[in-house]
User: What shape does this take?
Amino acid sequence: MRPQLLGDGPDPVARLGGLTTVGPDVSWCPPGVAGWQPVSAYLIRRGGSAVLVDTGVAMHADEIVAQLRALLAPGTRLSVVLTRTEMECCLNLPAIERELAVDRVWYTGGITVPVTHAEAHRVNVDAGAFLDVEAAPGLEIRLHSPLLRLLPVLWVGDLASRTLLTSDSFSHLLTDASGTPRPYDAATLRAFHDLKFGWIADAVAPEDIAAIGAHVRELVAEQDWAALGPTYGAPVVGRDAVRAQATDLATYLEGVGRRAA
Amino acid sequence: MPHDEQQHEDARRLADGVWWLGGCLRATAASGPVHYHVSTYLVVGETHAVLIDSGDPAHEAAVLRGVAEVLGERQLDYVLPTHPEIPHAGNIPALVAAYPGLRIVGDVRDYHLYWPHLADRLEPLAPGDVLDIGGRSIEVHAAHIRDLHNTLWAFDTGSRMLFVSDGFAFIHEFDEGLDDDEPIHREGQCRLTSRELGDAVTVEAAAYGAGRSLYWTRFVDVSAAFEVIERLLDERDVRLIGPAHGAVIDDVAQGLRVALGAHRKVFGESSGLMAPLKEGVGRGA
Assistant: This one.
């Protein structure tokens, strides 16, 4: 599968990885939904540096390593940022480290990451806040800690390309077997987020749920993002699509709060 | 607690046919070194043996040694990862290499993506299913306190031990200066039970770990979940509780009281306070 380029400017973000079927044998897929989804790692490149955000799943390990070899010039300084320490984010680290030199692995939460040689660097960002870091020499990214979460999670903003990598949120877009996205469907967006973040409906204080919705609105819908890249699910491409789908999610979350009240 | 007999270097016997394996990860707090358990439990029946959670890859060698010390020439037949995270499932490939007949049982969705070469070993089990291991059974239960929604708990009918994954992460030490979310203990407290720790087990200490590692419990009242847990403990006459992270609980009434108290404390201090987090908090590294 050819890497998909996301965002604006001379250094768009490259989506790496492959497709998988989703249905009853995939835990993040809601009941009654079936089809195909990309499971992705994302490569941000600038000059002689690069940051790989997540590492994909093992069934795509060979493909991801080949894509990295094709995209990275010899001598590129490579770091990895894990948006979560869950399997689909970190399990290809050993395979990547066998083939490429990785300087540092940034992660949040969790107690262990499968690092072989690189420096493991735990980073904590307060919920709702962000932190600008030089993740590789001369390459700055913005680490957001969203209120919409189950485990500790980072959303990675590449301000140069206006691309926001959203980990386990915005994971709702299906594709066909060739990777062509199916039309957006707001009901599917709600179903994916209900499954992953089911606790939100049980939150007692409506103002907590309202805060989650408001954060999605402020961080995504009201910003100038050209693309969203989730760990699984097809990317959301284009400012209008980003704004519309983020507004739908924020509105839905705010509605959960009203129902809870 | 029969801990004076049949002990091995890498496995502590908790009851007839049940062994505590795994290890501790280490960190350094301002007040000195601290540990946190990443535990796995081996249950040996008359015909089959099952490992509840695989342990962390950092402890791969110790887990393999512990299993071999207990089983000798016998095979490990099943591994039941309570959910697909590295500390709970990360040693599965190493276990398969050591025990070629090993089957992976439980909520095994997604595992074909993580280890495609193991796809033919996956056997789904759901809450209500029972795994007969000869003379005793492993019952599969829903996880009432969890992080990932595809988490399972398990109950051994032989020892009456309940395996609760990330629930009851029974902390017995805490250090506000430690930039970490995990239940920790001090050197010398590894593989001690809650009774052996005595006064070190407090609601305050348990709350420190519960609220930080299970973020959602800050905002959700888990009292109803604990009513279900209490019924389960009563109906199954649970004698031991085995969390993946923290001391084994051998005083079940105390464990229930402390865990519920911890979650209530976390909820009481956090609910309704999510909103003001984001004002002016962006900063450079």
In short: The domain at 4-278 of chain B is CATH 3.60.15.10 (Metallo-beta-lactamase; Chain A). Chain B touches chain A through 46 residues (CB under 8 Å). The CA atoms of residues 128 and 140 of chain B lie 6 Å apart.
